[in-house]
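Per your request, structure below.
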C-alpha cells in the first residue's frame, strides 16, 4: 500500500493539489523479487534474512476539491500547479458561486492560518529577541531617518503594528503594549 506524504499547509504545491487537483510524485519502498517471483533476502550482515527493498517513484493523481483555476494562476516553472497566494484564495472565495461548503471552509481556514503564521513570526517571535531584561521593548526613534523630517521608528517599527479595531484582520498585538507611564 502506498503511503502518501504528510500534508503540509505551508507547501503551495500541496495546497494547489488540494484545491484544483493534480499529480504528485510518491517515493515508496518496494520488495525486490527474484526471477521466480519470490522475495529476495539479504544474504549476510546485520540485516541477514530481511527482505531486500528498492526505492521506486510513481505518480498518483489526486482529484482535490475540483475548483477551476484561472489561466494567470498557472505556475510556469511547475506545470500542473497553480498559485495559491492570498489574492488567489480571496478571488476563489468571491468568484466560485457554487463553492462547496467544504471548499469554502478550507479556503477560509487557510487564509486564517496564514494570517496567524505571519502575526506569530513577525510580532511574537520577532519581538522576543528585542526584549530587555526588565521585559520591556524599546524602539529606536529616528529623527533624521526620513527625507521629510518625519519621526520614524525601528527595532521594532512600532508605527507598523496593526490596530485591534480592524474588521478584516482583528489582530490582538496592540493589546500587549502599554506605556510604563500610563496607568
Amino acid at each position: 500500500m502506498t503511503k502518501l506524504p504528510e500534508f503540509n499547509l505551508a507547501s503551495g504545491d500541496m495546497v494547489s493539489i488540494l484545491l484544483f487537483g493534480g499529480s504528485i510524485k510518491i517515493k515508496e519502498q518496494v520488495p525486490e523479487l527474484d526471477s521466480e517471483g519470490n522475495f529476495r533476502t539479504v544474504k549476510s550482515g546485520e540485516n541477514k534474512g530481511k527482505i531486500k527493498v528498492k526505492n521506486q517513484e510513481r505518480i498518483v493523481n489526486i482529484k482535490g476539491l475540483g475548483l477551476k483555476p484561472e489561466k494567470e494562476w498557472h505556475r510556469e516553472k511547475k506545470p500542473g500547479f497553480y498559485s495559491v497566494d492570498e489574492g488567489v484564495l480571496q478571488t476563489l472565495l468571491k468568484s466560485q458561486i457554487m463553492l462547496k461548503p467544504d471548499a469554502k471552509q478550507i479556503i477560509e481556514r487557510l487564509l486564517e492560518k496564514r494570517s496567524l503564521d505571519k502575526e506569530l513570526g513577525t510580532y511574537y517571535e520577532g519581538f522576543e529577541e528585542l526584549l530587555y531584561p526588565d521585559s520591556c521593548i524599546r524602539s529606536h526613534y529616528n529623527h533624521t531617518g526620513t527625507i521629510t523630517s518625519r519621526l520614524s521608528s525601528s527595532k521594532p517599527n512600532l508605527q507598523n503594528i496593526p490596530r485591534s479595531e480592524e474588521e478584516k484582520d482583528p489582530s490582538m498585538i496592540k493589546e500587549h503594549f502599554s506605556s510604563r507611564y500610563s496607568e
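The two ends are 64 Å apart (CA to CA).

Regards,
D.
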